[in-house]
Model the fold of this input.
Amino acid sequence: MDQANKDFIMNVMANANDLTLATIRPDGYPQATTVSFAYDGLTLYVGVGKNSQKAQNIRQNNKVSLTINNAYKNWSEIKGLSIGGIAEVVSDPRDIQQAIDCLLARFPEAVEWAETGQKDQVAFLKIRPQVISMLDYTKGFGHTETIKA
Done:
């Protein structure tokens, strides 16, 4: 991945607070849900309910798709990412702490939640992108470039 692509990806992630995460339900249908996220490089972190459908889906099938979009006022400003990746519900204490640290750095108001013991009800997801499509309508309507992560 060249530096221009990496810069574009990091800029889109820095300017978005949420993503839409699609997992595969047991019946084979996709389930898309909007969630807040944090990141460390290209690795994404999400907190979800420990027994949520998303967490259960990922435990059964770790392939996910997600989109991250920046706010825009007209189509010529659309910038976003469509990512195919591998997700895991992290269990290693170091990975859990990394997820918490990244999420609290991005959403400091969540520190109150983290201190109440509610974090025991949360599963932290670690998502590693495998393929990234970059949408940049400033280069023309529908302009996309796809790269391997």
The helical segments are 3-14, 53-60, 93-106, 111-115. The chain has one domain: 3-148. Residues 93-106 form the longest helix (14 residues). The chain has a mean pLDDT of 92.
